[in-house]
Write a structure and sequence with these properties.
Layout: H1 4-37, H2 39-78
């Protein structure tokens, strides 16, 4: 139990950040692909990509805060 909680937190943090990066990769690929065929839609997806990047940074900050908070609580229980 001593190592399972921090390990589970690390897996959760990694999964959340990976999901965000995959979504950004998917939308950026769509933006590049659509640029040659439909430039107006490509600009719209670029705007969505920029907003998603800002959201991803905010989520990363919140995830790091929650990770440190829960890790310190778990370690405090064991001391």
């Amino acid at each position: 139990i001593l190592l399972i909680r921090p390990l589970a937190l690390g897996v959760r943090l990694t999964a959340n950040l990976t999901a965000g990066h995959l979504l950004i990769q998917l939308i950026s690929t769509a933006t590049i692909t659509l640029f040659t065929t439909i430039p107006v839609v490509s600009l719209l997806t670029l705007l969505i990509l920029l907003l998603l990047t800002i959201l991803e940074v905010a989520v990363a900050i919140i995830q790091a805060y929650v990770f440190v908070l829960l890790l310190s609580l778990y370690l405090q229980e064991n001391i």
